[in-house]
Amino acid sequence: MSDESPWLVVGLGNPGREYAGNRHNVGFMVADLLASRAGGKFGRAKRAQAEVAEGRLGFGGPKLIMLKPLTYMNLSGAPVVALSQFFKVPVAQVIAVHDELDVPFGQVRAKRGGGEGGHNGLRSMSKSLASKEYARVRFGIGRPPGRQDPADYVLSDFSATERKELDFLVDRAADVVEAIVHEGVEWAQNKYHGV
């Protein structure tokens, strides 16, 4: 991986105040935290329907571009590919941060490549990038209770009990992103899986 190329961290979510606290918007929450850690401030991108913040991880550290698509989840891929091309980011240095039904709430997982598990934001990214070989930070939200439709569940807010842990977990997900940038996916898996 090139030290010159920046990393593109894609926080997946939906724009608009009504979605802000949704489980599906945890990618935006992590992107916001990373931007503040890296000294970046989100502004509207000229080249894509997205908000973008740029910064560095530590003094002289790797350059990070945080991206929040404003296209709604199903069309996330278009701004991702536009900005990855503009900033010359190889697919290996793209990280998607997203909610994950198949991981229990309270767990954060890292992986590279693989399927999309029915996640429309990932599906759109894979199609637009013509590759599935980007890294993912999977923020566990668990399965919906009872017979609740998963589509309704992801578009509902975290419960009061979950919100007590949410800041800590968003912080951990941001740590996982930084670990991938500094040490790679495998190292991040060894450090953070099982905690």
Automatic annotation (TrEMBL):
HAMAP family per record: Pept_tRNA_hydro_bact
Organism, as annotated: Actinoplanes utahensis
UniProt name for this protein: Peptidyl-tRNA hydrolase
Designated gene of the protein: pth
Binding positions for tRNA per the UniProt entry: Y19, Y72, N74, N120
Top-rank EC class of the record's enzyme: hydrolase
Annotated site residue numbers, Discriminates between blocked and unblocked aminoacyl-tRNA: N14
EC number: 3.1.1.29
A single GO BP: protein quality control for misfolded or incompletely synthesized proteins
Cytoplasm keyword on record: yes
Biological classification of the source: Bacteria, Bacillati, Actinomycetota, Actinomycetes, Micromonosporales
Subcellular location: Cytoplasm
Pfam families: Pept_tRNA_hydro (PF01195)
List of catalytic residues: H24
The keyword Cytoplasm is annotated on this UniProt entry: yes
GO molecular function: peptidyl-tRNA hydrolase activity; tRNA binding
Catalyzed reactions: an N-acyl-L-alpha-aminoacyl-tRNA + H2O = an N-acyl-L-amino acid + a tRNA + H(+)
Protein's job: Catalyzes the release of premature peptidyl moieties from peptidyl-tRNA molecules trapped in stalled 50S ribosomal subunits, and thus maintains levels of free tRNAs and 50S ribosomes. Hydrolyzes ribosome-free peptidyl-tRNAs (with 1 or more amino acids incorporated), which drop off the ribosome during protein synthesis, or as a result of ribosome stalling.
Cross-referenced CDD domains: PTH
GO CC annotations, alphabetized: cytoplasm
